[in-house]
Design a protein that fits this description.
It holds the Pfam family MARVEL. Keywords: Glycoprotein, Membrane, Transmembrane, Transmembrane helix. It is a multi-pass membrane protein. Strand 1 and strand 2 form a beta hairpin. It contains nine helices and five strands, in the order H-E-E-E-E-H-H-H-H-E-H-H-H-H. By secondary structure, the protein is of the alpha+beta class. It has one domain. It is rod-shaped, with a radius of gyration of 26 Å.
Length: 214
């Protein structure tokens, strides 16, 4: 289970931080055509792109794109990184300090509680990032960008050429919800290692044992 959490955890935040896509449109000036393009990448604070593009009269103007989706993206990545570090620590605990897990009842309890926390964090991060990704797609659509730059693109002057492709980020969201399942599904096995479950099992065994009852 830890191997699956490790692989899918890295994949979730790596597909987000390494992402980059491009949009473009064409300005039809009276005597020439000017291609305009922009890059959308992590952390997706698209309102801070500060990209200068040429106008038909030869001057330069900043391309305006609204929206800042960096907070949800960074939170999602932070959850992935923290989960990655926790897995490394947990594997070291299982492999080299197993006696602590067996002899100290607090260690299994903390491990189980940590998995509950990470399952909640993955759910919150994935949900927030999925919502921001939807808004990011709308904000960076070529038609929306053209509409937000009326001084640059007069009516029917700019024509869309290339829409940004967010397929890789959709995969990152799916991986996030898959991590929710992986961390939550591991809770039962961790709960069985806590003294609460062992004490309950022992009490049930004593209650059904005739000699114990006598």
């Amino acid at each position: 289970m830890k191997i699956l959490q490790f692989v899918f955890g890295i994949s979730a935040f790596a597909t987000t931080t390494s992402f980059s896509t491009k949009f473009s449109f064409v300005m039809n000036c009276p005597n020439k055509t000017l291609p305009v393009s922009g890059i959308v990448d992590y952390p997706f604070a698209v309102d801070s792109m500060n990209q200068m593009i040429p106008r038909c009269d030869g001057t330069m103007q900043k391309l305006y794109v609204s929206g800042d989706f960096s907070s949800d993206a960074e939170f999602y990545v932070a959850v992935g990184v923290l989960a990655f570090l926790y897995i490394i620590g947990a594997v070291a605990l299982y492999c080299y300090f197993s006696h602590m897990y067996e002899n100290n009842p607090l260690v299994p309890l903390v491990d189980c509680a940590s998995h509950v926390l990470f399952a909640i964090l993955w759910l919150a991060g994935s949900s927030a990032w999925a919502n921001s990704l939807t808004n990011l797609g709308m904000a960076t659509s070529v038609n929306n960008i053209i509409g937000e730059n009326p001084d640059l693109c007069k009516p029917k002057m700019c024509i869309g050429d290339r829409e940004p492709n967010y397929a890789k980020l959709v995969i990152s969201v799916i991986l996030g919800f898959l991590n929710v399942f992986l961390w939550a599904s591991n809770l039962w096995f961790l709960y069985k290692e806590t003294h609460y479950f062992k004490a309950k099992t022992q009490n049930q065994a004593d209650g059904t044992n005739p000699m114990g009852a006598a």
